[in-house]
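By way of example, we now present a protein record of this kind:
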Amino acid sequence: MSIIATNLTHVYSPSTPWTTKALDQVNLEIKDGEVIGLIGHTGSGKSTLVQHFNGLLKPTSGTIRVQGVEVVKGVNLRPLRRKVGLVFQYPEHQLFEETVAIDVAFGLKNTGLSKEETKQRVEKALLAVGIEYETYMDRSPFELSGGQMRRVAIAGVLAMEPEVLILDEPTAGLDPQTRKDLLEHLRRVQKERGITLIIVSHSMDDIAAMVNRIIVMDKGKIYAQGSPSEIFSHGEELRQIGLDVPPLTQLLLALRARGLDLPADILNLESARAVIGRWLKGGKDNV
C-alpha cells in the first residue's frame, strides 16, 4: 500500500473573503518504506498536505488514498489514524501525564491491549528513541531535558506502531548534539520497522542527512521532486522560491563558480573532504 494523491485540492474558508487555496491539483505517490523530505517556504502547503495523510483534513476536490483508505467525508478514519502517526512541531508541549510510562501509553488506552502488551509496547517505543524504560518509566516527563521530552513524545506515537510516521520539524529548537542523536534514533527506527517516514523541515542539513527523496512545494503545488543530490544541485532555483541548500552544498557551488571542477551533489562532510583533498593534490581527473 502507499499514499496516492490525485488532483488533490484544499481550500480554506471557501466562498468567503478569506478564501485561500492551500493545495492546488497535487499529484503524488509515496511508496511503502520510503523516507521522504517535504520542504517549502512557509505557506507553501506542506502542513496542509500532511494533515490529509491521516484525515485531519479532507480534500475540497480530488482524492487522497492512504494505506488503502480513501480520505472522504463519512469514512471511519480511526483505523487510518492508527496506521499513520503525525507528530506536530514541539510535541513535548502535548505531554501531560504524571509519568513517562503513562504518557507514552496514553494512545493505547482504547486499543484492547492487555496491561502486559501495553507495557511491552511502551518499553519498545521508548527503547526505539533511546530512553531506558526502567530508568525513566516512573519519572515525570517534565523533569526531563528538552531533547528527552521530545523523544518521549515521539515514543507515544511509535507505541501505536504506525505504518507511516510524519514528523513536522522534528529537530526544531534542539542543540546540535541532541539533534544528531534524535535523527540517528529515527533513522534506526525506520530501518528496523520498515515504516514510511515523512519529514517536514526547514533544515536542509536534516533533510540531506535523512531522506531518499525530496518533495518541494511552492504555492500549493509540487514544484519539484527527486533525490537530495538532484534537488540541491539546483540551488539558485530553490533560492528563487524562498528556500536554500545545505551549507556544504553552498560551499561546493561557490568553489565550482571559482573554477574548481567539483561535484555539487555531495551531501556529507567526509565525501567533500575527500574530493577537495584530491583536487588540492592535483588529482582533478579523479574528482
Summary: The two ends are 41 Å apart (CA to CA). The chain has twelve helices and ten strands. The longest helix spans residues 176-193.
